[in-house]
Amino acid sequence: MKPGDKLPSQRELIDRFGFASQTIQNGLAALRAEGLIVSAGNLGNFVSDGTSPGNDVRDDIKEIRSQIQALAERVAALEERSAPDGA
């Protein structure tokens, strides 16, 4: 397969190779971790072009942490507003 080519769906891989769905999922996860494929959500998995393997994941994790921090601050502010005086 060439960079940009779409991989078969998990169901197609299960049918083609006869492995359990968890085995297929583990294999795809390993390929993603090595930067050999990229996931496009509901669009499927695609062969990576080899640029910046793993950088997108680190950026995603950084963004998620930032969002969690912002949500934690908002929850704390809401809890502070709803607390009775003197509590």
Please tell me about this protein's structure.
With 87 residues, the protein is mainly alpha-helical. The protein has 2 domains: 1-51, Arc Repressor Mutant, subunit A, CATH 1.10.10; 54-87. Helix content is 56%, strand content 7%. The protein is built from 3 helices and 2 strands. It has helices spanning 10-17, 21-33, 55-82, and strands spanning 37-39, 45-47. Strands 1-2 form a two-stranded antiparallel ribbon.
Fraction in helix: 55-70%
Extended strand count: 2
The CATH homologous superfamily of the largest domain corresponds to Winged helix-like DNA-binding domain superfamily/Winged helix DNA-binding domain
Largest sheet: 2 strands, antiparallel
Q: What is the average per-residue confidence, as pLDDT, rounded to a whole number?
A: 87
Strand order of the largest sheet: 1-2
Unreliable stretches, pLDDT < 50, 5 or more residues? Answer: none
- What top-tier CATH class of the largest domain fits best? Mainly Alpha
What is the radius of gyration computed over CA atoms, rounded to a whole number of angstroms?
20 Å
CATH architecture descriptor of the largest domain:
Orthogonal Bundle
Helix/sheet category: mainly alpha
Which range does the strand content fall in? 5-15%
Q: What's the assembly state of these chains?
A: single chain
**Roughly how many Å apart are the termini?**
63 Å
- Tally of separate helices: 3
